[in-house]
Amino acid sequence: MMKNGHHSTGEQRDDAGRTQPSGSSGCSPENRKRVVRLWCDGCYDMVHYGHSNQLRQAKAMGDYLIVGVHTDAEISKHKGPPVFTQEERYKMVRAIKWVDEMIEGAPYVTTLETLDKYNCDFCVHGDDITLTVDGKDTYEEVKREGRYRECRRTQGVSTTDLVGRMLLMTKTHHSNMDNPDYQQHTDNFGKGPKGHSPWTGVSQFLQTSQKIIQFASGKEPQAGDTIIYVAGAFDLFHIGHVDFLEMVYKQAERPYVIVGLHFDQEVNRYKGKNYPIMNIHERTLSVLACRYVSEVVIGAPYAVGKDLLDHFKVDLVCHGKTEVIPDKDTSDPYAEPKKRGIFRSIDSGNNLTTDDIVQRIIENRLQFEARNQKKEAKEMAVIEAMKKKEQSEGGAQVAH
Hints:
The protein contains 16 helices and 14 strands. About 40% of the residues lie in helices and about 15% in strands. It starts with a strand and ends with a helix.
């Protein structure tokens, strides 16, 4: 049974709507007042909306979410080298709006000792397999003791998948506006399960209005808020974007940050190659998961014009230190906010770009391909062992 986007696990809801773990008495006043603390852990390498969705589902199971992130050394030992450094990964997880607390250097194997140390009722993980270097389930102990909950893995995206998309960039290039799928993709909200974006190449993600609602804050701007608008691709949403949005957020006492996301073909026009890596739907969820963002405009116009500024009652328009590419008619897309005196250039101090991340992957492509093959082989071995166990148990029952 599904409930609010995660597996029903036998917990009960108290009067305040909080989750009571199985076996607890949901009737006593003490339990009704008690805050349910949750633990999630992982590599959180190349953080994407799949990670964010897991943390959103986990938070829905309780009140206070603590996320443990592994060190580079631990990840290298069990899986192979991460794409991002531990400091980058720590900061990315802190920026996800459902995270209440982040623990640096969390152990790779989740134990009861860790849960007790942080006073957590149970841990939550996706319904995929996580194994140690010697092929053991990292959640074996907490599962055995009934302090494990599961949420659904987000279909259509994984770190392995994203690395694969970037590696494709050296083999395939878009022909931009001549692509016959160009017009079809402008209305690409209802493609079939086998459909793929002509711009991202391999994405299998299917967007729904429900998913956007789950990620959106739903908060309208209030009187006294400063409405700040930024626009861009925000492709492969990364630490450079987070640092920029945090700096934008700090431009006002009561900021309401609106991010305008350009359609895929617009991004491809000014970035070329195989960009964007993520399609418009994926980029929407990635940005909405950031705690510094209040609202997203899906398919925002490239030029920040009068209509947009008036419609959203924008007080301030910000842009980072990246080059501003002229519009199709060679005009400055920020001409109107500059004319109104509400344009501000922001230096976040972080010059990391999506290009830089792609270069990291391509430079280490053999390493990442080997890592992914090793991971997949280990997982397949476990799946085969589980199948054999089920078959033997089934055969034993028939014999009885």
